Amino acid sequence: MHPLLKKDRENLQELLSQTQKVAGEYFRQQDTLAPGRFVANIAMETLPEKGIGAMATLDHFAKNFAGQIANSAGPRYFGFVTGGSTPASVAGDWLVSAYDQNACGSNDSIAPQLERQTIHFFKQLFGLDEVYFGSFVTGATISNFTNLALARQWVGLQQGKDFSHDGLTGAEPVTVLSGTPHASIFKSLSMLGVGRKSVIRIATLPEREAVDIAALEKQLIQQAGPVIVVANAGTVNTVDFDDLVAVAKLKKKYNFWLHVDAAFGGFAACSEKYAHLLEGINAADSITIDAHKWLNVPYDAAMQFTRHKGLQLSVFQNSAAYLGDPEQSPDFFHYTPENSRRFRALPSWFSLMAYGKEGYREIVERNCAAAHHFGELLKASEDFVLLAPVRMNVVCFTLKQDDLSAETIRKFLEAVRDDGRVFFTPTQLHGTWAIRAAVSNWLTELADMDLAFEVLEKVSEKLKKAQPA
């Protein structure tokens, strides 16, 4: 054994202890660290011929890089739709790395059993029928990719073709209908060979991101063959929900695969105040929900659900003899894009066990209350304008000025970031350049929203003074 490896093995407990101190220092400062920062590109160094050992490497990282990590897991990071990491999920995630299980689905480890248990918990949390099969994937994009791969296979079978075996050559084009599809839908369709141009955007309701059901039915009438409908349960700009009950009724009349993108909106089910938004979701053929958003577990954790486990097997089944017969060797590497699978279910299992339905109800309702409070502050402001009603946990707003552009918003948000107290990301809504505040973190309180508004006003005033007279 190499001397450095031998030394690190002998001093593993001390190494883990020092690593805990580095992490502990981060958590200790989480209320005050900058949620966003600008970090210049670093010089690319040459790989060392001789290593320095784990302890010295940890020290080097702590001194030179730890201080430049963005506090995206903190209470005032409002970019994208990003949760933090609950204490229980951090404990679970550390053990994932320590145990280093290949959660392939065999009976060689408890890992796949706990994944099934966690999926079962989620079906109860989201109110999904027991018939749904589910598995963990890396994120919402790969969840959408996996589910749309099933939808593509279904379309092929309707045409008498087996796309997973024969490919798309000579097949009729696949058509996808959606009102406000997320960017990951287009990315997934590109990877699947279906193509970004396969999407037909359906009109949405006035001043909404929810699909116009009448317009959707009109398009369905015009379709000659089977299609894929992507419905939204929580859009990223305004958390708007398609009328899933109405879409489910259309499904009884027309031949389409219904995929519901509920990446973070699925967590509406946690609260009696918002659960009605998900009525009709059990008509879906496939569903995407993301755990590293509102569940607040570390990144690399999303779920996909489908009513068509057999179809999923036909798309993702492995043929290598060492991987076994799917009838004998259950699940996962026969049902997802990956063969090698991190034990990514464990942080979710830890967090669900630790806080239960009640804990997540509290997080969802507190985040939504914080977003509504922030919306009221913006509505009363002379510098900002709210672009949509605050439905749940995302606030979409912009500057109250005539010369809005992408560059204007970019410069404003850079100034906000450099203040060091809050972080937002830009967006565009109905052609207007805007700012999004996604409140998804388990630490966020009303006081954080007051501080965020204070920063926005300060930066706005500063930029106005800097303008030439």
UniProtKB/TrEMBL annotation:
InterPro entries: Aromatic_deC, PyrdxlP-dep_de-COase, PyrdxlP-dep_Trfase, PyrdxlP-dep_Trfase_major, PyrdxlP-dep_Trfase_small, Pyridoxal-P_BS
GO biological process terms, semicolon-separated: amino acid metabolic process; carboxylic acid metabolic process
Protein name: Aspartate aminotransferase family protein
Native source organism of the sequence: Chryseolinea soli
A Pfam entry, by short name: Pyridoxal_deC
GO MF assignments: carboxy-lyase activity; pyridoxal phosphate binding; transaminase activity
PTM sites of type N6-(pyridoxal phosphate)lysine: K293
Cofactors named for this entry: pyridoxal 5'-phosphate
Record carries keyword Lyase: yes
PANTHER family given in the database record: GROUP II PYRIDOXAL-5-PHOSPHATE DECARBOXYLASE, MIP05841P
Family note: Belongs to the group II decarboxylase family.
Keyword terms: Aminotransferase, Decarboxylase, Lyase, Pyridoxal phosphate, Transferase
